[in-house]
Amino acid sequence: MTGVHNGEASEAVAERPARRRSATATRAALRTAAAFRFGKYGYEGTSVRDIAGDVGVDAALVYRYFGSKEALFNDVTGAGKIFEPLLKEPVEAIPDWLCAMLLGAPKDGEFTHPVLSVLRSSGKSEAVARLRADFSEVFSTRLAARLGGPDAELRAELLAAWMLGTSLVLTEIRPPALQSAPDAKLEKYLRSVIATLLGPAALDAGMPEAGGDCRAAGDH
């Protein structure tokens, strides 16, 4: 896939009608798209326009949320950094964040999942240990402490495992029902699982109104 094709693919995505998202969801979707593109094309081979096109927003939003391409690159470099912003969001915004992350990957099937890129690196044992440490820090320790309630650490780790598995299936295996389902329908089921693992309080705060989805509250 050449740089020209890379740009053309992004333009094609950009032509899709943009859905309204919350700021939380937009930032998460941009981080996900950036992680995939930087992982495949590297820093020089990825443009802000390509990343914005994958998400269906104007490139100006990348600069608004991250300041620069370099800042976005630094934000998502490393297996754990893409999950760090999750810890800055209110618990009630976590469903938005996770929906955007799971559905924010480029849809052209040309991109290797960032976690697979880590696992296929030359120092595999070191990469796996680093990935485990990152997940433990973000989910087992820090997110679990914020969730509280019974089995908080288990729920946080199950959320991480479910999120990673779902993301890998969506981007690498691409089974027919998941590929053909509208985003709004996927989000309905995604939110049900997320809310259950976050706990009873999130079940009320995280579920959208009837007919709504995690992109309902837009800021652009």
TrEMBL record:
Keyword line: DNA-binding
Region called Disordered, residue ranges: 1-21
UniProt-listed PROSITE patterns: HTH_TETR_2
InterPro entries: Homeodomain-like_sf, HTH-type_TetR-like_transc_reg, HTH_TetR, Tet_transcr_reg_TetR-rel_C_sf, TetR_C_16
Pfam families in alphabetical order: TetR_C_16, TetR_N
DNA-binding region: 47-66
UniProt superkingdom: Bacteria
Start and end residues of each HTH tetR-type domain: 24-84
Gene3D superfamilies the record matches: Tetracycline Repressor, domain 2 (1.10.357.10)
SUPFAM superfamilies assigned: Homeodomain-like, Tetracyclin repressor-like, C-terminal domain
Name of the molecule in the record: TetR family transcriptional regulator
Lineage: Bacteria, Bacillati, Actinomycetota, Actinomycetes, Kitasatosporales
